[in-house]
Amino acid sequence: MGDQPQNPVVQTIFQYMDLSNPKSFLLFAGAGSGKTRTLVDALELMKLQYAKALSMSGQKIGIITYTNAACEEIKRRLFFDANFMVSTIHSFCWDLIKPFTNDIRNWIEEKLVADIKKLDAAIAKSTTPHGVTAVRNQRSLASKKKRLAGLHAIRSFTYSPASNKPEKGALNHAEVLGLAAYLLTNEALLREILWNRYPVLLIDESQDTNSELLESLIATQQENPHQFCLGLFGDMMQRIYSGGKSDLASALPAGWKSPAIMVNYRCPKRIVRLINKIRITDDDHQQDFAPNAKEGTARLFLVDTSVQKDKSKIESAVARFMAKCTGDQSWSDSESVAALTLEHHMAAKRGGFSEFFLPFLEVERLRDAAINGESEDIRFLTLQLSPLISAIKREDDFEIATIMRKYSPLLASANLVSVEDPIAVLRNAQVYVDNIKRALDSESGGTIIEICELLNDGMILRVPESFMLHLGVGMKFDALEDDSGDEGGARVEAEHNAWRESLSASTKQLENYVRYVSSSSSYDTHQGVKGLQFSRVMVILDDEDARGFLFSYEKLLGAEPLSTKDVANEKAGADSSPKRSRRLFYVTCSRAQESLAVVAYTKEPKLVEKTVTTSGWFSDVEIVLM
């Protein structure tokens, strides 16, 4: 989209953000419409017009984005201008509410009391007191009672999403959002702080923003519409998380503006026609082609799952077929094809990091950290261990030395000043580096824990304290426990077991995981690619491997009948499995810049073929039976 002309909507949005006469708005920006560029271009106009006024007043333009990566991209494109405060929704909310310590305590206390009451009732009704659900409820009840008992001893609360060992007063993601929504609704002072600090607040991906928080922000804007501009960017068809405000577009207050970008600058014509057909069931937004759009290619591959097949071979055959039919030999290079799976479990299996990754998915507090790559322990593996392993494999002495100078306790000045022979220290370090190289070159490639043990013994890297237990360095469970009351001893043991299993995986598994979490892997999830784009896209629809219940491509594609609940939800206009699946399908197909292959594993290929041809998604000649 680099040659995309400036969208005329930019000037319109800039006028809405007039500090003396603001107008709040919801910008419809469908897939590939250049939403981020539109946002940045409008902010650059604000910079030219209002930089001096903002600096003198101490006010800022607030921009909320969905991911840390998006934050950094927008900051970079604005040259890190101090007049713009760019952050994720959680960080923004925490910055706003953290001074309200007593209100936070009262809210948590009320919530804990209500949760305890519900758990007491559930346990009392349980007919299987030793069943999985009952045991989980009992543990949760004990945890919440412990947290409630210690609540009034907490002097201040914290929000540290990257910490792997939260403090006593640590709040989680959901609590920060819930508190912000509650306090904005009930505290006039906080609302005044918000609009005085940020006369303009822009929210990207607003369709996935927590509905209660969004409602409180809209109510705040309605209280002071002449001083506060709330700008929402998004597309309801790209709503992929359940907490978003489903009626956002239809429930806007009077006086709000509804600009739209109707051109798709990313996709070729064939893909634009496809995604227009996909969304026509949900709304009447239809996109136009970009002036220079090529025709592009789309194919649907139907794989009959009634006969056992090797899925990796099927997907390789699909790539070869696409290389032939498009004349694009890059389809034969797996690194050049974005393979999109429904969830992380599928991506891990196909991407070769399941042994390292899957144990984390079984433990709630480790799951998000592993998916986002943001905890301290995970960052040690991704930012220190993995780069060092790569440098040792390449025998890149300069890079090895660079990493060690930055992280090694052996080369820390406090250590070097106390040794008599620094050269001997370096020779000893080289012995350990050579031992690591031999382990990596072995047939097994070395396990992560084996490499960590060598690193720890040789002081090559400062291995995290929490790894000491896994290295067998005399720590017990009670040494790892905290008093936060979040989970207790059972949680610590579960986390220990997950880490022990993951660290027993090979270093190759870690390398594949690092590529995945840094978005350089050829695999990603349907949810994870929103906002991204790829030349060649393979969308994998496989309910059997997904193990989920929120999505069903078999229902969407007519291979499986709708449930009674699905039918009732459809009639009531509520969300349903087919609707959620259709939105995800729209998001994934709209990532393709040149060509698209949809691989559908199905029990009923003929029924699917009938559904997609009747709906106009694919023609007969575009469907391949595998």
From TrEMBL:
<keyword id="KW-0347">Helicase</keyword>
<dbReference type="GO" id="GO:0043138">
    <property type="term" value="F:3'-5' DNA helicase activity"/>
</dbReference>
<protein>
    <recommendedName>
        <fullName>DNA 3'-5' helicase II</fullName>
    </recommendedName>
</protein>
<dbReference type="Pfam" id="PF00580">
    <property type="entry name" value="UvrD-helicase"/>
</dbReference>
<keyword id="KW-0378">Hydrolase</keyword>
<keyword id="KW-0547">Nucleotide-binding</keyword>
<dbReference type="GO" id="GO:0016787">
    <property type="term" value="F:hydrolase activity"/>
</dbReference>
<feature type="domain" description="UvrD-like helicase ATP-binding">
    <location>
        <begin position="8"/>
        <end position="281"/>
    </location>
</feature>
<dbReference type="InterPro" id="IPR000212">
    <property type="entry name" value="DNA_helicase_UvrD/REP"/>
</dbReference>
<dbReference type="GO" id="GO:0003677">
    <property type="term" value="F:DNA binding"/>
</dbReference>
<feature type="binding site">
    <location>
        <begin position="29"/>
        <end position="36"/>
    </location>
    <ligand>
        <name>ATP</name>
    </ligand>
</feature>
<keyword id="KW-0067">ATP-binding</keyword>
<dbReference type="GO" id="GO:0005524">
    <property type="term" value="F:ATP binding"/>
</dbReference>
<dbReference type="InterPro" id="IPR027417">
    <property type="entry name" value="P-loop_NTPase"/>
</dbReference>
<dbReference type="InterPro" id="IPR014016">
    <property type="entry name" value="UvrD-like_ATP-bd"/>
</dbReference>
<dbReference type="GO" id="GO:0000725">
    <property type="term" value="P:recombinational repair"/>
</dbReference>
